[in-house]
Design a protein that fits this description.
- The structure is a single chain.
- By secondary structure, the protein is mainly α.
- The protein has one domain: 3-Layer(aba) Sandwich (Rossmann fold).
- It is built from 5 helices and 3 strands; from the N terminus they run βαβαααβα.
- The chain has helices spanning 11-22, 46-49, 51-59, 72-85, 98-108; strands at 4-7, 26-29, 93-95.
- The chain has a 3-stranded parallel beta sheet with strand order 2-1-3, with helices on one face.
- α4 (72-85) crosses α5 (98-108).
- The protein is globular.
């Protein structure tokens, strides 16, 4: 089985790839695997963002960009592009972030971006495996 790992450039993903590279794995860093860009909201708790802003985002989850970052639709486009251009038939490991994994999961099931926040799945469990087929 090939020993390849694909990670985002974000530290919590890339560090896993760096460790595996020490054990002989080929490490591919790809910005397309990053978590959604929350812009001005990045690193803030929901209370700090405020209910009006969170409600506006939830009511138009797919397209809202009031935070200055990516919309969920933009995350889905980036994820779909990665899935289309990355050969997975030989097997590889992808270390991703919850938003990206949820987007990949929906895309692989034939679904697009959720319309409302209630359609967004809960975060994958720590160490959960998703078969990208």
């Amino acid at each position: 089985m090939p020993r390849e790992v694909h990670t985002s450039a974000l530290r919590r993903g890339a560090d896993v790839g760096r460790w595996l590279a020490r054990w002989g794995w080929v490490h591919h860093i790809d910005v397309a695997l990053a978590e959604i860009d929350f812009g001005q909201w990045d690193g803030q708790g929901w209370d700090a963002i405020g209910e009006p802003a969170v409600s506006a985002w939830c009511s138009d989850l797919a397209n809202h960009r009031g935070h200055g970052g990516e919309s969920v639709s933009m995350l889905f486009e980036r994820c779909a592009d990665w899935l289309a251009r990355t050969p997975r038939s030989t097997g590889c490991c992808v270390v991703g972030h919850a938003g990206w994994i949820n987007a990949a999961r929906r895309l692989l099931r034939g679904s697009g971006p959720p319309v409302s926040a209630s359609d967004w799945p809960s975060a994958p469990g720590y160490g959960e495996r998703l078969d990208l087929g």
